[in-house]
């Protein structure tokens, strides 16, 4: 298509229209690729096992049944325990809500210092913090397991909150720092002259301006913590496992008949919170995130 | 006293983070590095014994497979995600009426856990019930798509699912980049009758170099960390065919009770990450200083 512009300029009207249709067709084909797993998950979860065995992957359910959903929620077995995802879903909430709030709050304070209260050595520390964001977690897995054991936090929910908070700080600080850097420094200087201190300026000037970056940070941290599997599987015990670990146990349990509809329902339940957050607030997230990385 | 306090408040605020990072990032890396030089088995031992664990690592065929897999998986994942992301971004940039809906569809996989995604893909790729069975049911009894259980092809199913998950995010990065290019230049080029594809290849794409770099770093980092998807999709199998360094490390640490091997494999993983990320961060931080 060397001489064929994609839009406007020369070329015949019909040629342009054909191209336009081809463009929409391509985009829709890709939309199908991205939607296929979700479609298959939802339809499979609504079918009976019998229908799954005899029917086709993409066929709509002939008879809609929510049995698989109720079993996934409160009856499916994760190893020896058969209480469904419910207790683990609750664990994930207990882990992610404090984890998100604490790491976001500390990140906001840190970002405020890095952006507006620089001192000697602050840039060096910031660089160290940034490098910390990029380590593969495998390199801290063994010592963290030992340390949690020593402090009696192995296999507990507070232990997982602690781990997520620590390793989330790099990103939360980075987000807030990059956002607060854009706020003119004169604002702080003027407030100081008026006698406002460090915390006063943060509470009454910076925090009220922080809504967009708070949204980005909270969504980021929430998806990270909710979707985490590595820390969950390494540091949790039967009573504190997050929902991702439970889902994996349900799907890969080897006993009994394989109930694909229950697996799919469980997968949707485990993915639902982040999916909802994304659908409701995703626009702001992408805007904030891409603004940061495009500038960077 | 209060004066001293108010002067040092910023440092006091940062202090907990400083000590946390010092201990839980750098201290822990040092601990792992130390253990990787010992003969630790189920329990850590602290007598340094040279590079024995690294010798064992590099002579272990399972690690060899895992390390090779990382490069095959990483290369395919990064290249295809970038090409696909750029292509979709350019297509979406053509004043598409349903852009908002399409963008959401392309992006939602990013919100999901790899464990959720892996569960779905495992089902779709299951030869007995998934795509293979479906196409056979359409009247093509000889159709075969059993990559998931084929040791030679299983790795590519992981690539397929990983691209599905990450390419929408790359698309969003590129789309934001396309939109940030100066519209006046593009308009001027179009007035001069330069075809649109030339405007892209000669003006727009070259100006997006920093975004290519960002996308590359994000994808490379994701590739090296990939663990959940393998666990959910193939569990490393068949055999060790889809092992990655992350799953090798986990197996050594938690099911084999071989801390020395786990530590040395983690150190090699970190080496690969830093070889990619350090030059990038260095240039980023320098650029911000200038």
UniProtKB/TrEMBL annotation, chain A:
<comment type="similarity">
    <text>Belongs to the binding-protein-dependent transport system permease family.</text>
</comment>
<dbReference type="Pfam" id="PF00528">
    <property type="entry name" value="BPD_transp_1"/>
</dbReference>
<feature type="transmembrane region" description="Helical">
    <location>
        <begin position="264"/>
        <end position="286"/>
    </location>
</feature>
<feature type="transmembrane region" description="Helical">
    <location>
        <begin position="150"/>
        <end position="176"/>
    </location>
</feature>
<keyword id="KW-0812">Transmembrane</keyword>
<feature type="transmembrane region" description="Helical">
    <location>
        <begin position="21"/>
        <end position="42"/>
    </location>
</feature>
<dbReference type="InterPro" id="IPR000515">
    <property type="entry name" value="MetI-like"/>
</dbReference>
<feature type="transmembrane region" description="Helical">
    <location>
        <begin position="122"/>
        <end position="144"/>
    </location>
</feature>
<feature type="transmembrane region" description="Helical">
    <location>
        <begin position="197"/>
        <end position="222"/>
    </location>
</feature>
<feature type="transmembrane region" description="Helical">
    <location>
        <begin position="93"/>
        <end position="115"/>
    </location>
</feature>
<dbReference type="InterPro" id="IPR035906">
    <property type="entry name" value="MetI-like_sf"/>
</dbReference>
<protein>
    <submittedName>
        <fullName>Carbohydrate ABC transporter permease</fullName>
    </submittedName>
</protein>
<keyword id="KW-0472">Membrane</keyword>
<keyword id="KW-1133">Transmembrane helix</keyword>
<feature type="domain" description="ABC transmembrane type-1">
    <location>
        <begin position="89"/>
        <end position="281"/>
    </location>
</feature>
<keyword id="KW-0813">Transport</keyword>
TrEMBL record, chain B:
<keyword id="KW-0813">Transport</keyword>
<protein>
    <submittedName>
        <fullName>Sugar ABC transporter permease</fullName>
    </submittedName>
</protein>
<keyword id="KW-0472">Membrane</keyword>
<feature type="transmembrane region" description="Helical">
    <location>
        <begin position="153"/>
        <end position="178"/>
    </location>
</feature>
<feature type="transmembrane region" description="Helical">
    <location>
        <begin position="262"/>
        <end position="282"/>
    </location>
</feature>
<dbReference type="InterPro" id="IPR035906">
    <property type="entry name" value="MetI-like_sf"/>
</dbReference>
<feature type="transmembrane region" description="Helical">
    <location>
        <begin position="70"/>
        <end position="92"/>
    </location>
</feature>
<keyword id="KW-1003">Cell membrane</keyword>
<feature type="domain" description="ABC transmembrane type-1">
    <location>
        <begin position="67"/>
        <end position="282"/>
    </location>
</feature>
<dbReference type="InterPro" id="IPR051393">
    <property type="entry name" value="ABC_transporter_permease"/>
</dbReference>
<feature type="transmembrane region" description="Helical">
    <location>
        <begin position="199"/>
        <end position="224"/>
    </location>
</feature>
<dbReference type="InterPro" id="IPR000515">
    <property type="entry name" value="MetI-like"/>
</dbReference>
<feature type="transmembrane region" description="Helical">
    <location>
        <begin position="104"/>
        <end position="124"/>
    </location>
</feature>
<dbReference type="Pfam" id="PF00528">
    <property type="entry name" value="BPD_transp_1"/>
</dbReference>
<feature type="transmembrane region" description="Helical">
    <location>
        <begin position="12"/>
        <end position="34"/>
    </location>
</feature>
<comment type="similarity">
    <text>Belongs to the binding-protein-dependent transport system permease family.</text>
</comment>
<keyword id="KW-0812">Transmembrane</keyword>
<keyword id="KW-1133">Transmembrane helix</keyword>
């Amino acid at each position: 298509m060397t001489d064929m512009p994609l839009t406007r300029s020369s070329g015949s009207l019909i040629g342009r229209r054909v191209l336009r249709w081809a463009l929409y067709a391509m985009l829709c084909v890709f939309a199908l690729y991205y939607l296929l797993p979700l479609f298959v998950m939802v339809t499979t979860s609504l079918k009976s096992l019998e229908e799954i065995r005899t029917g086709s992957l993409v066929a709509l359910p002939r008879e809609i049944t929510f049995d698989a959903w109720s079993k996934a929620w409160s009856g499916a077995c994760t190893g020896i325990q058969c209480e469904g995802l419910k207790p683990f879903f609750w664990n994930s909430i207990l882990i992610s809500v404090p984890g998100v709030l604490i790491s976001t709050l500390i990140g906001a304070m840190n970002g405020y210092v890095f952006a507006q209260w620089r001192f000697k050595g602050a840039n060096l520390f910031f660089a160290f913090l940034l490098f910390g964001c990029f380590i593969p977690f495998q390199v801290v897995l063994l010592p963290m397991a030992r340390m949690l054991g020593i402090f009696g936090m192995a296999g507990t929910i507070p232990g997982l909150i602690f781990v997520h908070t620590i390793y989330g700080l790099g990103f939360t600080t980075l987000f807030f720092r990059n956002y607060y850097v854009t706020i003119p420094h004169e604002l702080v200087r003027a407030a100081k002259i008026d006698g406002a201190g460090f915390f006063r300026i943060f509470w009454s000037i910076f925090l009220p301006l922080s809504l967009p970056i708070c949204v980005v940070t909270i969504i980021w941290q929430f998806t990270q913590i909710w979707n985490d599997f590595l820390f969950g599987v390494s540091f949790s015990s039967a009573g504190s496992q997050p929902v991702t670990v439970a889902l994996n146990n349900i799907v890969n349990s080897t006993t009994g008949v394989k109930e694909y509809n229950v697996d799919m329902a469980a997968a949707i339940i485990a993915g639902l919170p982040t999916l909802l957050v994304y659908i409701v607030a995703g626009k702001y997230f992408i805007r904030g995130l891409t603004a940061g990385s495009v500038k960077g | 006293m209060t004066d001293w306090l108010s002067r040092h408040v910023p440092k006091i605020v940062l202090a907990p983070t400083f000590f946390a990072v010092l201990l839980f990032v750098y201290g822990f890396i040092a601990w792992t590095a130390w253990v990787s030089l010992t003969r630790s088995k189920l329990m850590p031992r602290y007598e340094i014994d040279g590079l024995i664990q690294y010798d064992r690592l590099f002579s272990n065929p399972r690690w060899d497979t895992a390390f090779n897999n990382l490069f095959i998986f990483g290369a395919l994942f990064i290249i295809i995600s970038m090409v696909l992301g750029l292509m979709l971004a350019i297509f979406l940039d053509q004043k598409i009426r349903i852009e908002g809906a399409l963008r959401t569809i392309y992006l939602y996989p990013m919100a999901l856990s790899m464990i959720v995604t892996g569960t779905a893909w495992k089902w779709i790729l299951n030869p007995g019930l998934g795509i293979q069975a479906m196409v056979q049911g359409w009247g093509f009894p000889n159709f075969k798509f059993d990559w998931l259980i084929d040791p030679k092809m299983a790795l590519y199913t992981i690539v397929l699912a990983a691209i599905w998950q990450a390419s929408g995010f790359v698309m969003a990065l590129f789309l934001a980049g396309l939109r940030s290019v100066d519209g006046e230049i593009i308009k001027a080029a179009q007035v001069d009758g330069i075809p649109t594809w030339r405007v892209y290849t000669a003006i727009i794409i070259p100006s997006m170099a920093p975004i290519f770099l960002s996308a590359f770093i994000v994808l490379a980092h994701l590739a090296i960390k990939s663990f959940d998807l393998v666990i959910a999709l193939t569990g490393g199998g068949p055999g060790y065919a889809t092992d990655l360094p992350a799953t090798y490390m986990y197996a050594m640490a938690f099911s084999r009770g071989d801390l020395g091997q786990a530590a040395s494999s983690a150190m090699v993983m970190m080496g690969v990450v830093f070889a990619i990320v350090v030059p990038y961060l260095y240039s980023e931080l320098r650029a911000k200083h200038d």
